[in-house]
Amino acid sequence: MSNDLPSDGHKVVSKGYKYFMVFLCMLTQAVPYGIAQLIQPLFVHPLVNTFHFTLASYTLIFTFGAVVGSLVSPIVGKALQKVNFKILYLIGICLSAGAYVIFGISTKLPGFYLAGIICMVGSTFYSGQGVPWIINHWFPFKGRGVALGLAFCGGSIGDIFLQPITQAILKHFMTGNTKTGHLTSMAPFYIFAVALLVVGLIIAAFIRVPKKNEDVASAEEIKKNRHEAAQKHAHEFQGWSGKQVLHMKWFWIFSIGFLIIGLGLASLNEDYAAFLDTKLSLTEVGMIGSVFGIAGIIGNISGGYLFDKFGTAKSMAYAGIMLIIAILMMILISTHPYGARINLYAGMGWAVASGLSVFSYMSGPAFMAKSLFGAKAQGVNLGYISLAYAIGFAIGAPLFGVIKGVTSFTTAWWSTIFFVAIGFILLIFAAVKIKQIQKNIVVNKSNIILDK
Length: 452
Description:
Layout: E1 11-12, H1 15-38, H2 44-51, H3 55-58, H4 60-80, H5 85-105, H6 109-128, H7 130-138, H8 144-172, E2 174-175, E3 182-183, H9 187-204, E4 214-215, H10 219-225, E5 235-236, H11 242-246, H12 249-270, H13 272-276, H14 282-334, H15 341-356, H16 364-373, H17 378-406, H18 409-441, E6 448-449
Parallel strand pairs: 1-4, 5-6
Antiparallel strand pairs: 2-3
Helix pairs in contact: 1-6, 1-7, 1-8, 1-9, 4-6, 4-17, 5-6, 5-9, 7-8, 8-14, 12-17, 12-18, 14-15, 14-16, 14-18, 16-17, 17-18
């Protein structure tokens, strides 16, 4: 960290130290969040087979966790304004690690539901709210989008090594394969509980927000970032409180748009593997999944650059186009028989287009919460935005199943395009209107910095 002390006694933090915070956020996404959320689906079949649950009854764990986690998110956002960040980070880590212990001792569905809810709530503290809170503090002006993209690509990086590790551990404590076998021990849950807790505690020892005597951007950087900001202490746009946002018409249009997007993306994220299994070999589906993971890393980083360079509306328009291309690839696959060569090519097209758009729902909410509604209540407003998406996502998966059951996969994918297109149109239109309101507010205040 730089020790340069300006005349006011403040010191400017070095870029290296700020990116160390980004690395810690990336590590948070890769390990604690990866264990808490990304590997849970791998336990579904072993637990269903071990305790003789129905698949539909057990997978409700993800719906309950998503909804409750999103309801808690605004509360966590409000708490971040009043409670030391490290304390909240540690609470989240302990909740998620404790949830894995509950998984390990549970034998009935209510126990697993409780564990899933606690795990999701815990991850809200250090991931859903925690990571954006850290990035927004260390990068209030230049580079915030890229920093968010780098931080959230940690989840994709973690997936690369956590998936095979989890499968290897499950195989060691199972009879049969991961889809038809059953567990001989609940030890995997305790192993991951310890791993999550240990890595989380190490990260918590270093991760923090800037101190009061630390400047995260020098006067020169501020001027370069916004040429109209001639004063050294340019101010962030404070925007609106959580209560004020709830009275804004354009916030509700924005949120409804994001909810409708969630309706479409639920099927694209949850049902793609089950659908591709009916058209391609398991090896080919695995190849497509790997391409999606790599494209997701690129998408998060490039998406952050797009947010910084072009702002919310243009970046989300790009993401919407990529998602529509991805769904068109699914429609193309649905019209061809199993094993057709074009299915593999279209599947790769889906993986690339879908991966490049992941920033819209991963780092996107965190960027948009501050860019559109200001810094005053960014955590609370992020919670509201996340809740809207989570409700859509929770409804979207079963809705896709109903449409598919009544009609066909092709019709279900067309309905997904409809949801995605309408949702992005509403979201982008609302974003443009909100930015116009911001400009009208600061028109005579040259020392206020607005995001694009």
